[in-house]
Design brief:
With 218 residues, the protein is mainly alpha-helical. The protein folds into two domains: 130 residues; 63 residues, no CATH class. The chain is 73% helix and 0% strand. The chain has nine helices and no strands. Helix 1 packs antiparallel against helix 2 and helix 8 runs antiparallel to helix 9. The two termini are 24 Å apart.
Length: 218
């Protein structure tokens, strides 16, 4: 699973590439405006030079777009992992040292298994208050075995989850904007539905903007 730091780096790289693409488009638009404002030239001359300006920009833009698609493709599958609160909780260690973490887990494995339902529930409640998410999850696992009624973990705030999902959404938003840039640079017209799709993807806060398997519903 990609870390938040890695996602930040990918997101930053995509934004840098997108900024470079916008600079190219600005330069092309400047040429187009110059041609269109030249009243001494015929429409055919203007059209030919505008097409040339667009065509000259396309190789670099397409290369940048392909690069962005590759990077987003490596990020998108991790949406499913970061969307799973259970998976994230199961990965939280008791201690950063592997040996210490293993010893603590072994200790709790025996203690929690021996607790009755009420005590196990109380232990988990206390762990939630203390922010000890590793113990919260260990209690949840023990509860699955014993059948004890424990807290609903659906509202637990797992560190990094919100930021990671926002970064993944932002990566797709950058790609959507880049695709719009290339479409505009090529001179191709887009249907209203295509424009709407791009617009939605460029608003990563909207739950319906993305349709990958791991995307949480609204």
């Amino acid at each position: 699973m990609l870390s938040v730091l890695t996602l930040q780096k990918v997101s930053g790289g995509l934004k840098s590439t997108l900024a470079a693409m916008h600079k190219i488009i600005d330069a092309v638009n400047g040429k187009i405006e110059k041609f269109e404002s030249d009243t001494s030239r015929s429409q055919s001359f203007k059209a030919e030079n505008i097409k040339t300006a667009r065509d000259e920009s396309m190789p670099v833009l397409l290369k940048d777009l392909a690069s962005m698609r590759e990077r987003v493709a490596t990020v998108e599958p991790h949406r499913e992992f970061w969307s799973s609160r259970a998976l994230l909780l199961s990965r939280i260690p008791f201690d950063s040292d592997p040996a210490t973490d293993a010893a603590i887990r072994l200790r709790y494995a025996g203690e929690l298994a021996a607790m009755d339902g009420p005590l196990l529930a109380l232990t988990q409640k206390n762990a939630l208050i203390d922010g000890n998410l590793a113990l919260v999850w260990a209690c949840a696992m023990a509860g699955r075995v014993s059948g004890a009624e424990l807290a609903d973990l659906g509202a637990v705030d797992v560190p990094g989850q919100t930021e990671a999902l926002a970064l993944i959404d932002g990566c797709d938003a950058s790609l959507a904007e880049a695709e719009m840039v290339v479409a505009g640079a090529s001179g191709l017209s887009m249907s209203p539905s295509q424009k709407l799709t791009f617009a939605r993807r460029m608003q990563p806060g909207r739950a319906e903007s993305h349709n990958s398997p791991g995307r949480p519903s609204a």
